[in-house]
Input
Amino acid sequence: MKSSILSGKTYFIRTFGCQMNLHDSERVSGLLDSLGCLEVGEPSDADIVIFMTCCVREAADTRLYGQCSSCKSLPKPPSGRRVIAVGGCIAQRDGEGLLTNLDNVDVIFGTHSIAHVGELIAQAFEDGDHHVRCEEIEDKGATSMPWHRATTFHSWVPIMTGCNNYCSYCIVPYVRGREKSRPFDQIVDEVSGLVRSGVREITLLGQNVNSYGRDIFGKPRFADLLRAVGETGIERIRFTSSHPKDLLPETIDAMCDVPAVMPHLHLAVQSGSSRVLKEMNRRYTREQYIDLVHSIREKIPGIALTTDIIVGFPGETEEDFLQTLSLAEQVRYAQAFTFIYSKREGTPAAKIDDPTPHDVILDRFNRLVSVVETTAHEFNQGQLHTTVPALIEGTSKKDDCMLQGKSPWNQTVHAPLPVGSDIDSYIGKIVDVDVNVAKTWYLSGSLVGGPR
Output
């Protein structure tokens, strides 16, 4: 590929879905930067528009179709010709079939082909034809690509790709493939390099981080990895996603022992009904999940537990839902991402007939949201009238004079930017905030001392 073909071209990337997609987008951005491309803030200013897609829920497909179609009405780009590319999970799932509904798309690249996005886009500029690459096996690792991080103080660090769990509702194993762990020393070396470059917080990424190392060592070694990463000097460690069936006691011990691991755990339950959990192929029961929560809180009092819950899984009865509602009330989550079940063709659950009326499912969803709002508000009261260290990410979307950051418990924290201060002197720094307001979704207060 002649890099001069892309040199000077402008690009815009829009990302849908999970943190793994965000990381993939940073890699694609880094690759385009290395080929001389220039990032812009709006699709209208871009010669290259890339959509990094998610296919976990049907709404993602709808958003992609709408935004691709809207590109047809954009003004001419700087170079006179615009190339539209679709990557990520929808691209992997549908491949060339996307062209049936999206006739203005030029390039399609799957989850295992992001290292080839530069050459695919260059070919599209050269010949004006469609170019599709959706291989089942990755020949070039994304982690070997150049990197354009969205921030200098936080970094995504993938530790594995793929998933072996095959939950009956989930399309991810079919588009991300089987679990494949990165070499242990490679991850630790990467984090050490990030620390040297000034990164203060990392998020370890995997579809199921608790399985890390099973394919390499014959058993999971996520606990060992947490300890090794903690020794690099990184200040804050987070990780996602964490499957309950694989969260071992030694991992809980490592979370407790490593000071850099933040007191926050996202532990997706999906349902509080053991019957539904079996239908979902989650491989744990309601009772096992609750016992696990007790073990975690015994070792890490005050930890923020967050979760994912699906309402309206095919065949869910009112009794099943009440089991979910009571589990949420018992666990008292700091936050929960609640979803109405979305059928994904190609998954076992898609074949289950469900006569439950939508208004019944919507009523259940609203009842669950009400419980989650109550427990989230209750959790945040625990920080009221305390001093919370917040890593500042920028300013509030609603007020440029209001600092916004994250607490160790992953709460959004607001504090006024001191008069006469420059926001750039706070971004990426940790500040102490004396919390005097604790709402359902955020904390706010006043600064104590300066940034560090």
